[in-house]
Design brief:
two-stranded antiparallel sheet; 5-stranded mixed sheet; about 280 residues; alpha/beta; about 15% strand; 10 helices; Spore Coat Polysaccharide Biosynthesis Protein SpsA, Chain A
């Protein structure tokens, strides 16, 4: 038997008062049920994606560690190697052996799962209150990571946007600005950059993970959470390294973005319809 006290914003909406029998208490934690965002041993789980990154994975890990040393939050690094065909996993194991004092976990997939699936798997493996993806290609300088990680705790969602780039004159291409504006119109949001790697409450990633695969999965997740009134802080970042080469399939990326925009549009219509009932 349970009784719930419901608030109207963000994470408080999902908190409640819980009653359990003595028998049930041997299986469940009242705190975990009543306040699902609390009782995590670490501030953040940092998921580092890895697929054939033998030349960049160690510099990526070094940059994460350096940034977290500056920020001072408690953290763990979760590396998921997506069935790399090179020596990426060996490089990570060597790094782990040299840094046994750090919280580092690596899972090596037997078959490829893709970035989106690994991202959601990592949320279930981790134990941090917050959760963020860092790509293993070492394209994010330390100062950018520091800007983002310092904002942890200021809001439920941290959305970085780039005000300077290391190799490109324009802050965002025309296509990027057009697409960003389109998503804002469809969703009703005012987000500066949907394609950056956001920080979320890890519970939210597990609870509301998107069915979108490909590059747009984080955009769909972000819009879901904003629609549920989770708080958001947009953080201007000083640089992002565009020298890192990320291979993209134009058709697959287009389908991913189309899927996400359709999801966002249909959810908005559904909210309008059901809010009047």
């Amino acid at each position: 038997m349970s009784a719930a006290t419901i608030n109207t914003e963000g994470r408080e909406f999902w908190e409640g008062a819980v009653s359990m029998t003595n028998t049930a208490q041997s299986l469940h934690s009242v705190a975990h049920i009543a306040t699902p965002y609390s009782a995590n041993p670490l501030d953040i789980t940092i998921f580092v994606s890895c697929y054939n990154e033998q030349d960049t994975i160690v510099p990526t890990l070094e940059a994460v560690v350096e940034a977290m040393d500056v920020v001072g939050n408690s953290y763990e690094i979760l590396v998921i190697d997506d069935a790399s065909k090179d020596h990426s996993a060996e490089q990570v194991r060597n790094f782990m052996a040299m840094h046994d004092d750090l919280n580092i976990i690596m899972r090596v997939n037997k078959t490829r799962k893709g970035l989106a699936q690994n991202y959601y798997d990592g949320a279930f493996i981790g134990c941090g209150t917050y959760y963020r993806l860092v790509r293993g290609k070492n394209f994010e300088p330390v100062e950018t990571s520091v800007d983002v990680f310092r904002a942890i705790g200021d809001a439920d969602i941290i959305v970085p946007y780039y005000i300077a780039r290391l190799r490109q004159g324009a802050l965002m291409t025309f296509g990027g600005r057009f697409f960003n504006g389109l998503v804002n119109i469809v969703s009703g949001n005012r987000i500066n950059c949907y394609t950056s790697t956001h920080v979320h409450l890890r519970y939210n990633v597990m609870r509301w993970h998107s069915d979108v695969l490909g590059r747009a999965f984080q955009m769909d997740l972000l819009c879901q959470l904003l629609a549920r009134e989770f708080t958001c802080k947009q953080v201007p970042c000083r640089a992002v390294n565009l020298n890192a080469k990320i291979k993209r399939n134009g058709i697959v990326s287009g389908l991913s973005f189309a899927h996400a925009v359709l999801n966002i549009f249909l959810r908005r219509i559904a909210r309008l319809v059901y809010s009047n009932r």
